[in-house]
Amino acid sequence: xxxxxxxxxxxxxxxxxxxxxxxxxxxxxxxxxxxxxxxxxxxxxxxxxxxxxxxxxxxxxxxxxxxxxxxxxxxxxxxxxxxxxxxxxxxxxxxxxxxxxxxxxxxxxxxxxxxxxxxxxxxxxxxxxxxxxxxxxxxxxxxxxxxxxxxxxxxxxxxxxxxxxxxxxxxxxxxxxxxxxxxxxxxxxxxxxxxxxxxxxxxxxxxxxxxxxxxxxxxxxxxxxxxxxxxxxxxxxxxxxxxxxxxxxxxxxxxxxxxxxxxxxxxxxxxxxxxxxxxxxxxxxxxxxxxxxxxxxxxxxxxxxxxxxxxxxxxxxxxxxxxxxxxxxxxxxxxxxxxxxxxxxxxxxxxxxxxxxxxxxxxxxxxxxxxxxxxxxxxxxxxxxxxxxxxxxxxxxxxxxxxxxxxxxxxxxxxxxxxxxxxxxxxxxxxxxxxx
Length: 436
Ligand code: ASP
What we know:
This protein has 13 helices and 18 strands. The protein has 436 residues and is an alpha/beta fold. Aspartic acid binds at residues 8, 36-37, 46, 48, 109, 162-163, 177-180.
């Protein structure tokens, strides 16, 4: 049995909603459906963005701000042949929003969309507020497992809104934007699905960013670990938190394209072991994908005898912690350490430098503000010597200066730092080298 999630683009027009209904009905295993709010369509805002505007309007202007959302759902109902289906719901929401808080208002896109699809499919609607629980604003995993067990027991053929749940007082709480992916994963685990199908508007995860590398292709199988590395480097087909619920239950995720039935999509499997058997990879290359992000800063700190000074690393990092700056990599030498972090404003940068100077009294400290990081990711690296050598050689042949190198002990990720100005050339050179 499958849990399926359809994203905003899939739900954006009456035609696409009917297409979604057809896809669901094509496979009788698709019994639990989670939906996003309708996304951008010709001349129309993403519903959640329109709802943000409603929440920002003062109480007396909210009804007017809600009018485009109301009209969009009325037209969607008409387009799928269910004229007037949501009138009562829309009236109630229009009354409630005058007093309602941000999360309630934001969640109504998913709520209405799930009601609409349930009507089209003739499935039952179950409100996410009854299933997904928050403790204050934090997702409460344990409680959610209990409420889902009760709420979904004996149920089949249901549509559930994504993106939100409720706290112990019944107040609606949303995940961060894009959070319907997380809701889908929670439902997949709750019903112990064989697979979590995530329908979107792309064919799957790409071996590299096609904006920079036009010949990039779709990855057929990825492991959760590889996905995390790639997502962190900016490959964001899925909400980053969405893998955790299904990972715990060893449920594979299958990314599929609502608008391209011929695309086989990307399967994300729990462990390396799944790479054999029915999930075997198309090509047996050492590298699965290459991803990169620009605009990092690196702070280089030199101090004689640094290697024997106990606690110096902790003191450096505590400065970053105090300013809430997350540290990405810490390549180090005997008497030096480099801290790589995402670009921050100049005020924070200056304060950080002063703080590090005070804390560790370095001989020299310098800052570089044009670093790009490129991650070469793949389980195949483990068993094959020479991957790092090939990467470095290739950059050297392309006359690209390598400014940082980091390889974790997990051996599935090699991080290379180059200048922002070399970023695109480096991506092209590396994808050429590893044929991804
Ligand atoms: N509708 C929400 C958003 O736009 C959640 C989602 O689509 O997953 O962020």
